[in-house]
Design brief:
Alpha-Beta Plaits, single chain, alpha/beta, Rossmann fold
């Protein structure tokens, strides 16, 4: 039997009972809902429904809907849809879909325009835009406020590498972060997250703090910065820096461990992911003495870090076992994923230094966090404007979902 297709759009004040009343009116005419979408902004509703009705019944359907609209104080518009146009729309549903996440302390119309322009230049259509961050006051002083918008875009034939490059180039001029991901099953099913420790989970480099206590702070800090920028071999720089600590008293370790400065957003991020059942690990080129303190703080599942060699309560300037460098971190990520029986697509890695790049590239979601320029340039995702909890937005988690 021939059927008509009708696009219904509803706008007006949002209130309980509106959607129920409209659908009850449609049910009287045995109408089918082919597609539906609704959003509400500042107590104003925008509802769209694609309807299939019996041939010749569209007039009666519209009449009943207009009566409902008058009663509820909303406005309706109707557009007939050609069946050929509808079938073409249905055939497009298999096109690749991507998620673009825009983050910052505050987002402007220009920020959104730049993202939309890049999508248009690549022949992609924006299917949906959602706010993930909570509302914030314009009058209250909220220096740590967060703003995040998620775009769902779709289309065929896009050069993904060029698209990612064009999107990330926006962060050079706009004070925002951008993440670009395929909208697939893996994005919604991550199970393992691994962190670097120094300058990622904590706001310091422990080696530098130890060096200050040993009176070789400036010497070691210079070597550390060069290593993190990828200018010198990590193992050689590590051994050279550690050697300057020979003879340092073990009591210094506890003094530093008791006052570790926790990175902004770390408690919120790890607490949320643990509640969601994530396996959480530290893979660090730092020291296990301090990583174990964080393991106890958050109830982490695993730690891989360097074990200091201590003799007669003094550091010897050496470590026990192999040095945990970039290759070891990447290997350990693979091993933990295999132990959990999950694919690397389901893993997240977070770090800031050059020795984190191997695991960042290996993980399904690799995030360079407040990272050195060489790391940002080579990582697929970067966060520089928000705290660690900004990673929750990359997973599609809304502020209102986190109590």
């Amino acid at each position: 039997m021939k059927r008509d297709i009708l696009l219904l759009t509803v706008i007006g004040p949002d209130h309980p009972g509106l959607t129920a009343a409209l659908c009850e009116a449609l049910a009287k005419h045995d109408a089918n809902v082919l597609d539906i979408g609704q959003s509400s902004i500042h107590e104003q509703v925008n509802l769209g429904m694609l309807l299939e009705t019996a041939a010749g019944d569209a007039g009666a359907v519209m009449k009943d809907l207009l009566l409902v609209a008058h009663h509820h104080g909303v406005k309706l518009s109707f557009s007939p849809v050609d069946s050929a146009h509808y079938e073409a729309w249905v055939s497009a549903q298999g096109r690749p879909r991507y998620i673009v996440t825009l983050l910052g302390r505050k987002l402007s119309a220009a920020n959104i325009a730049h993202v939309a322009d890049v999508a248009a230049r690549h022949g992609l259509n924006i299917d949906g835009i959602s706010r993930l961050s909570g509302r914030f006051s314009l009058e209250a002083d909220e220096p740590e406020r967060r703003a995040c918008i998620e775009f769902s875009i779709r289309g065929s034939g896009a050069d993904e590498d060029r698209l990612r490059e064009d999107l990330l180039s926006l962060t050079q001029d706009d004070e925002v972060d951008l993440a670009f991901q395929a909208d697939d099953l893996y994005r919604r099913n991550r199970r393992l997250i691994v962190f670097d420790m120094d300058s990622t989970l904590i706001k310091c480099e422990v080696m530098d703090e130890l060096a200050k206590r040993a009176g070789v702070g400036e010497q070691v800090a210079a070597i550390t910065e060069s290593a993190m920028r990828g200018e010198i071999d990590f193992n050689q720089s590590f051994e050279k820096r550690l050697g300057t600590l020979n003879g340092l008293d073990e009591s210094v370790l506890k003094d530093i461990a008791d006052t570790l400065p926790i990175m902004d957003g770390a408690d919120r991020l790890i607490g949320t992911l643990k509640r969601l059942g994530y396996h959480v690990a530290i893979l660090s080129g730092g020291f296990s003495y301090f990583a174990d303190v964080l393991k106890q703080r958050w109830g982490l599942d695993h730690v891989s870090a360097n074990q200091l060699d201590i003799v007669d309560s003094k550091l010897t300037g050496k470590v026990k076992g192999e040095i945990v460098n970039g290759e070891v971190k990447a290997r350990r990520l693979q091993e933990i994923a295999a132990e959990l029986g999950i694919g690397l697509e389901q893993t997240i890695a977070v770090g800031d230094g050059a020795n984190d790049l191997p695991m960042l590239k290996l993980a399904g979601l690799g995030v360079a966090f407040h990272a050195k320029p060489v790391v940002q340039a080579n990582a697929r995702h970067a966060i520089s404007t928000l705290g660690l909890d900004g990673i929750l937005y990359l997973l599609g988690i809304r502020d209102r979902e986190i109590a």
